[in-house]
Each structure stands twice: as structure tokens, then as C-alpha cells.
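Weekly structure sync, notes
Attendees: PL (lead), two postdocs, one rotation student
Agenda item 3: pending single-chain targets
PL asked that the sequence for the first pending target be pasted directly into the notes so everyone works from the same version. It is reproduced below exactly as submitted, 84 residues in total.
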Amino acid sequence: MGWPRFLIFNAAGGLVWAIIYGYAAWCLGKALSRIAAPAGIIFGILGVIALGGSVLFFRYHEARLQAEAERAFPGPIATGRRRS
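Predicted structure, written out during the meeting:
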């Protein structure tokens, strides 16, 4: 195949490839933008529920967790800082 003919077909193939991938990315972005707002709200609500649940769990089990910590590390906990 001669150089001029190869150049034309190579450029045409690159142009078709770029158009197809560009259009596919545009369609995907359009679909994701429709999903992003409801998904963000749902994940926000789930995050608040998880945070509230963990606060309730730790408040409910606080005495037991403190007793276990005291058994594991009795006495005051050193800060790791040395006084000069």
C-alpha cells in the first residue's frame, strides 16, 4: 500500500475511532449525571444512619469498653512525651 493511500485510511480510521469513543463517553457522562444526584442523597442518608448507629453503640457499650481497656492497659496511659 502506498504512503498517500495509507495516510488517508489511517486518518479516516482515527477519526471514526475518536468519534465513537467520544460519543460513548458523552453518553456515559449523561447517564452518570442522572444517577449522581439520587445516589449522593442515598449515600448521605446511609452515612448519617451509620454515624448515628455507631454513636448509639458506643454509648450503650461505653462502660464495658472502658472496663476492657482498663484490663488490657491498667493504670494511666503515658502520652509518650518526655518532660525536660
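Discussion points:
- Residues 8 and 14 are 10 Å apart (CA to CA).
- The chain is about 80% helix and 0% strand.
Action: rotation student to compare against the earlier draft before next sync.
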